[in-house]
Structures are given as structure tokens and as C-alpha cells.
Amino acid sequence: MDGLNPRKLFSLLFIIGIAVVFTLQFGPGSNGFADTGSAAPTASAVATVNGKEIPLRDFSMAWSRQMNFLRSQGNPIPESVARQFGLDKQVLDRLVNAELLAQSAERHGITPSDEELRKLIHENTDFHSKEGAFDFARYQQVLRDFYRRTPQEYEQELRRQMAAQKMMDVVRTGAVVSDDEVRARYEKEGNQAKLVFARFLPTMYADKVPAPTAAQLAAFQKAHEKEIADYYSANSFVYNVPERIRARQILVKVAPDATAEQKAQAKAKAEGLRKELEGGKDFATLAKASSDDDATKLKGGELGWVERTTWDPALADAAFALKAGEVTQPVESALGIHLVKVEEKKDAQARKLDDVKGEIATSLYKQEQAKGLAKAEADKALAAAKAGKSLKEQFPVPAGQQPALLRFEAETKPEAVETDSFTAQGDSVPHLGPAPGLVKSTFEAKGPAVLDEVFTVGEANIVAQVVEREKPDTAGFDKRKEELRTQARQAKQIELTESFLKSLKKSGNVVTNTEAIDSVLGSAG
């Protein structure tokens, strides 16, 4: 898949995912898609596709398999994170697409042969004896006890799955690639380069900027009134801070369904703990020993800085009425009985623009000066590179280490970063991201060379030199022709499949039920 760009590669993995859905969702252990005849999904379905429901159970199984697959590949990401990246929507989309293809196969009269069905069943190891051969008695037992299907039901579902796969194969057979397309692909992919670059960020030079003099600050403030006002508006939360307390708590938990007697016992326990505090017991020590709040007890009940609006009103009223060092009486909330100690208090702040103009102007002045220093250092590095001192010589990385950029750490100084080879197809540079101007200049270079300008990518000033340059030629094309033809065919198969699925969705009726998905995965995903 070397010739596939990231979008095509993702699409190919998507098609493979469809095939997996066919195998797992229509095959062993699946209850298929129930036909309700209704366009809207019921509470027990995650979607309807032209009136056929995709049951909650099918989605739940597909989700579990997806998460187990990620874990088996060394990616044990939490389910909540997977949902943030939309993995649940991808799983549902694969199920919907699988159903659309199955229905299309039925309309086109595509049916697998009895021999194909027999072969697939016989290859399923769930139905094998201890000796590793298909066992008809075990086949019947597994269907009855585990899949809860009769052989007729199971085989009908399996035929449907196989027909859907055949439908996709039919679509993909239309991917014909001409010699001209293969040549065009080579012209793009054979045009490659590799860079070494260094980044010059303003943050690297911020501590080298001296504080402005009164005259400099006044001049800057006068020339940048709009920028100062815009900065104040964008960061008003910094200058308008509500009253806050830094607090600790001891919690005596009370179950939501607790009886009056149980509540009284909890309150009595809290009162006893408060007496221990009055007797001189350290609050943090007592919290570690007696608090029921698992999230804070090991930290001595430390809650950090708290605003009034983030707490239960009764608890907030009691705590915010105290002075630093004082402890509340027992206060009841939905969680139980609380004792709160106020460690420190900060009054509300409402600083107007006029009050902070000088502060903002100083900050913006230093930022501007740091940008200027970064650009000046980039210009100096470019001049040295043109004079023959490579970026790796100017900005070496310690032996055995990777540059901070590749370690995803904050960069405190410029470092020479070498990219992988990349092509002119896109506008991105490895490790930098979108940088169209840099890409254009890179491929205008005839061979290894220092690029003769400083490029701006985000906040960074970039100095770069081409260290490898490969151009397409006839010998290279002849060597890779068949490989490129295969890649081009794969890319076209992906495009045809995507287009076909889009047409099925456009002409069909697909209704999804996100509430049902939430009921399966829960609020945490």
C-alpha cells in the first residue's frame, strides 16, 4: 500500500472492516437483522436500513470485537477515548453499509452456491471436533446452545452474508486501470524528496526579551490599542475571576436509598470526626483515615481551588461563609455528609481593560520581540547553511536521542529534524503538517540543496535543506509498473465501493438511533 495516500489507506481499511462485519455480524453468533417493516428504529435497534432493523445486540457485539481487536494490536485505549474519536459511529456505519450491500445483492439476484455455503461452514473451527474436522453433531449443538439458531436460520443468514460479499466483488470488478493512469501515478509517486529542517519558535526566545522601557511600552500601547482590546476580550476569564476557596473535605457517604436511621448514623459519624478536629486532630490525616471519597482521601481530602457554582448550593454556602483555617459543621448533599476545611480564600476579581492595559501591552510587546528574535535566528541559520554549514552541524541532536519534536515534547531550542521521503502529491511535510510553500520549493529543487528562504508554518520559522531528491525515469517506471498497477487498481476499487455505498444511502432510507448506542455504551463510552 506504499502508493496509497492516507485517505485511500483509511478507505481500504474501511473496506476490510466491511468484510469483517460480513464475517462476524451475519455469520456465527449473529442474530442477523430483524425485519420490522418500520423506517424508524425501535428502542431495541441502533438503526433501520430500508425498514430492516440493526439490533442493539449486533452493535454491542461489533463494538466489543472492535475494542478487543485494538487491544490485541497493543492499543488498549479506553472506550471513552474511542468514542471521542468517533469509533462508535464508524462501527455503526460499517453495520449500515453491510446491510445496504446485503439488500443490494438480494435485488440483483446474487446468490452463493450450495458448495460455497458448505465450504464456509466446514471451515468454521467452532464446528470442528477435537481432531480438527467438521463435526455435524457439534454443528447442531453449537447452533442450538450458543447461537440459538436452527441450521435453516443460520444457513439463510450465512447465504445472505456471502451474497453481500459477492455484491461488493461485482462492484470492484469495474476497477480497470489504463497504462496512462499507471504512468501518471508513477510520475506523482516517483517524484520524491527528503528534507532536514529546523524550527525557530518565538517561545524559544521569550526569556531573552528584556522588559520594555516606559517609553517603549507607551509607544507600543498607542500603536496596538485594537490588539490589546482584542486580547482582553479573548482572555476575559483571566481578568474576571469569581470568588474561590482552596479546600479539603472529609466525606461520609450515604446511599441514595438510605433509611432515616442510616442517615442519622452517618451524621453522627461526621459529628464525631468534627469533635476530633476540635480536639486538635490534623484534617489531612483524618481525611486519609476516615473519608469515603476515594478520589481525594489519599491526598488528605485536597480539592484544590473551587468556585461556588461548581458545588451543591448548601455545601457552597457553608464553605464560602468561612474564613481560612475554619471547618464547616456537617453538611448534607446528594453524596452524603461533608466536613470542609477552607485552607485559603481569594476574593472575586473584576479587572477592567484600563486596569490591565499595561500588563497586556507588556506581554504582547515581548511576544512581538520574541517573534523578531526567532526570525532573525532563522535568517542567520539560513545564511550559515548557504555558506556550507549544514543544519545537522548547526543544530545537532545528542547521539542516541530523537529531536524533541519527534518525542512530542516542548522544543526549547532549534534541532535538525530529518523527514521520511515524501511525494509532491499533497501539501504536507512529515513531522510539520501542511506547508504548501515549503512543498512547492522542495520539488522545484533539482537535487540536494538549501532552500533559499525562511518558511512560516504556524508560529514557526522553518529553515530547510533538501538532502535527497528522486525523479521519475523510464527505468524506474519499468521496474515498478506492475506494483503501481496493483496500487492504482486498489485505489479505484476503493473509489468505486465508496461511490456505490453513497448511492445506496442516497436512494435508501437509513435512520440511526444514537440514544440506543448510548444505552449500550453508557455515558463513559
Automatic annotation (TrEMBL):
Main localization category: membrane
Domain PpiC: 242-344
One Pfam family of this chain: Rotamase
Keyword field: Cell inner membrane, Cell membrane, Chaperone, Isomerase, Membrane, Rotamase, Transmembrane, Transmembrane helix
GO molecular function: peptidyl-prolyl cis-trans isomerase activity
This protein's record includes keyword Ribosomal protein: no
Protein name: Periplasmic chaperone PpiD
